[in-house]
Design goal:
By secondary structure, this protein is mainly beta. The protein has three helices and twelve strands. The radius of gyration is 20 Å and the shape is globular. Residues 11-17 have low confidence and may be disordered.
């Protein structure tokens, strides 16, 4: 609750209009179940993502083309971080560390296509145990026990793609719906998903081609847009079909993991949040929920966590 109050305070006190153009951005996104409950520490428990984005040259078919470099880390645990018995592991401990390069192609027809190549590792080489111990030391939590049974080391190579298309827009430009589609294929995740992104503007909404909602807001002297003030509440609903998840099933490149679980293919995802601009910064807070991703979980009513995003614009 304190985090939400802080975000709202920044929103109401720092909202500043700017017509400048910024062609680069540094972004930090953190996911953690602590952002929704201090008592939770399970399943997808932490994510940290640092990204650098910048505009690049594009052909006449595109409105913009943005390159994105990212370092990311995902961490997964059983129903609690201290698991003394092997039989209590209702989900494997797992870490995934990667670097990625993405291209976001923004079309003049209110569509964008993003493709990303990830290279990394799962297992102890991803330093999941060390990162969780560091986080627990900060909050004076008990040291995690059970990482010796984590998913074994394996090379990670994934190709991901996202396609968004404007579907419905209200005349006063304070409400719109975007159709979202995504797919992942690789040695860590393989899945497809589809759903809708609904925005309710606290100010008139920006187009898909120039909005923080779709990471398309970067501009330079060759683009027709400028930085605009944005503030909106959003709801994202997605249905995903999972074919493979190495953090649950273990990698097919290394079949020596002691703890693996059976995947649940069909998963429903919900995200409710707020995003807004404040001078050279963009902020976001969201609550995320997903139905069970694997079988035989002790908490079988799905998992929830929070996400905080801070972005800084550069010329």
């Amino acid at each position: 609750m304190k985090n939400i109050i802080l975000v709202l305070f920044i929103f109401f006190s720092c909202l500043i209009f700017s017509q400048e153009k910024f062609s680069k951005e540094i972004s930090l996104l953190t996911d953690n179940d602590l952002y929704v409950s201090s008592a939770k520490d399970r399943y997808y428990t932490s994510g940290i993502y640092l990204k650098y984005s910048y505009l690049t040259k594009h052909n006449n078919n595109l409105d913009k083309k943005i390159f994105e470099w990212q370092i990311g880390h995902k961490m997964y645990t059983p129903y609690k971080a201290v698991v003394l018995s092997l039989n209590e592991h209702d989900r494997p401990f797992a870490g995934y560390l990667y670097g990625s390069f993405g291209i976001n192609r923004i079309y003049k027809t209110s569509k964008n296509l993003k493709t990303t190549l990830q290279i990394g590792t799962i297992g102890s080489n991803a330093f999941g145990k060390e990162l969780q111990d560091f986080i627990h030391n900060i909050y004076s939590f008990s040291k995690a026990i059970g990482w010796e049974y984590q998913i074994k080391n394996a090379f990670g190579l994934n190709f991901n793609t996202e396609f968004n298309s404007s579907l419905l827009k209200e005349n006063n430009n304070n409400f719109d719906i975007t159709w979202m589609n995504a797919a992942q294929i690789g040695t860590v995740f393989t899945n497809i998903s589809s759903g809708f992104y609904t925005r309710i503007g606290l100010k008139p909404l920006q187009k898909l081609m120039n909005s923080i909602a779709f990471n398309t807001h970067l501009n330079n002297n060759k683009t027709q847009y400028k930085k605009e003030t944005e503030s909106f509440i959003y709801l994202k609903t997605l249905v995903a079909y999972n074919l493979y998840d190495a953090t649950i099933q273990g990698s097919f490149l290394n079949k020596n993991s002691l703890v693996t679980k059976e995947l649940i293919p069909l998963v429903f995802n919900l995200e409710l949040g707020i995003k807004f601009t404040a001078n050279k910064f963009n902020f976001g807070y969201s609550y995320l929920y997903n139905t069970n991703k694997s079988k035989d979980l002790r908490y079988n009513k799905g998992n929830s966590y929070g996400s905080i995003a801070i972005n800084y614009l550069l010329k």
